[in-house]
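Before the break, one more example. Copy the sequence into your notebook; we will annotate it together after we see the structure.
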Amino acid sequence: MIPKGRLVFINSEDQLLDKNVEASPEIKCTKLLSFLNDFKQDPVKVLIGRQHFSKNQKRFYSKALSAAGYSNFKFILLSEENITQKKNNKELSDAKVIFFVGDHTQSYEILKNSPILKIWQRRYMTENGFTIGGMSDGASCISQSMIIKNDYNYLNSNKEIKLCSGLGFLHNCIIDAKYIQETEYDQLAETVVKHQNLMAIGLGNDTAFIVENGQGICKGDGTIIVVRTSDVLYRSDEVNSNYEFYLKNLKGRVLINGCTVNLADNAEIVCEEDY
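Here is what the structure looks like once it is written out:
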């Protein structure tokens, strides 16, 4: 069954961290955020993973969502107490858009056994226009398999990518929503080689990947890398981060704005008109 809802993954370095919000008169990710929903008055709930999320970041998202035209959004700090509180629970159940920001591991740990997650999963399968989205780290919890990176040495080419369970909205892909094109292709390719039932999708900066009706479409000024192993003709017996290994016919494809990929067969990529 093809879900009737939508998934929106966004990667944008246009997050101000601890910088002054007023220092950036133009927020580049505004256009990407506009893809969350066509009806800007619909309720949007922004769920905050608890770690490493500053007041400036909250002000940044408020400004960005307002600039994108949304008028009915609310921030909810993720905790077991907050998601079970009666008012929040009803608002989370009724929201048209759920948007994750902040720490993805915290989001998963709090939501993995919660009744609200089952409600969202049912709505995603059956309700047109219901959207689950996220920005950068926040987006990483959405898929069934969630990427965990060792960021202590962020530009180290030997940085390891691990997979763990995610919230389960996308079953056949792993999404790297903080993909760095210059340094991380090897790690993404190695990860998908170890898990050949999955397709790896890496979002470059200033891109959105929208999943709807069994297809994913690239939007934005950046590019998206798609890596799959279904055509691999040969590989060495052992794939290990500490040793070289050999693959024949490993394919990687680059999506630009308007390109779509068929998620059902991991193969067909076509181009549409620019946005």
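The helical segments are 30-33, 55-67, 80-84, 86-94, 104-111, 115-126, 185-194. The mean pLDDT is 83. Try to locate both features in your own notes.
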